[in-house]
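Handout, tutorial session.
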Amino acid sequence: MAEYSNSVSSEIPEETGKHDEENLSALHKHVMFFDRNKDGVIHISETFQGFRAIGCGVLLSSIASVFINAGLSRKTRPGKGFSFKFPIEVKNIPMAKHGSDSGVYDEHGRFVHSKFDEIFHKHAHTHPNALTSDELSQMLKAKREPKDYGGWIAALSEWKILYLLCKDDQGLLQKDIVKAAYDGSLFERMEKERQSKKQITTPGV
């Protein structure tokens, strides 16, 4: 399997707001895919384009883009006024971490290997390196914090979309797929695979 890099830095350089690959945490890389023009800000239209690029339908992409941007925009723009465009500032994405999550990202957005391995050690009972749909649901329930309804919904949405798009023929969500999702390399790969399939199925001119 390919190895997926996980930087330990926590911020994008303040002076530019643009992406410096060597100074990105895993969480920054996770969301950077959706910054389609790489200007350091993710707008609703870019979130929509990102979801479409990895294979989500128009309806799911529309709902997800509005839900995500509306939920994260204010958290990533401290001290700035409300905007109906709901922009997300990538450099501040660790501020938008929600409760009831897996704990794989620390407070700076860095990847915590022990927390990642814990997911499969505790919940992957059928196959040691994969989660079934039921095991995924059990994991989400185990991570719920009391009365953290927003966190419950966010975690459920993230994981169920990942499962829907990336489960294998046996209905398993493989460990290497989950790891790649955490640093965003999965999204790049999914987009390239979809583009390749389109080229194959498009009749030659």
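The second record follows below. Compare its token runs with those of the first.
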Amino acid sequence: MTAPKILLVQSSARTDASTSRRLSRELAETFGGDVTLRDVAQSGEFIDGNWVAANFTPAENRNADQQGRMASSDTLVAELQDADIIVIGMPVYNFGMPASLKAWIDQIARARVTFEYTDKGPVGLLQGKRAYVVVASGGTPVLGEIDFATPHLRFVLGFLGITDVTIINADQQAARGEQAVTDAEAQIAAIAAAA
């Protein structure tokens, strides 16, 4: 059996003492495959008008500047296309996802590349992959009524064709303390045992 290719996307602004970073790294390592790390908090790019113009220009018609503008996005898309398993570490900031993770979504959600419009509606082109989202929060209950991060990310992944999405949560750490992390570690252990 071939070892899976794993894409680990980290988005916490904290490089030390980050719960989402530590737990998502532990989860990615349990699958025993090659792990590609994409730290969007350290290397994320926001789209702008030039990016949008380049994106709407057919690839074969892009000039050198437009090709350069899309190069980072092309790399991010290729990482997703190549991965069998995507593990995303996501802290909840002010009820939403970090801006760096939203910027990554904007770079990889591309019509005719990762999804396409059809007469029956949009169809994701990244089917057959599994995703695991490790969510950490201080006070926001994951998938509660004030969590706008997790449902958004799950929807986007599904829109791209990744519908097998598992949420691991270490939420409400300000109130639950270490128990929140312990519960998430138990979820990871159960996934590892099943794998």
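Points raised in discussion: The domain at 5-194 is CATH 3.40.50.360 (Rossmann fold).
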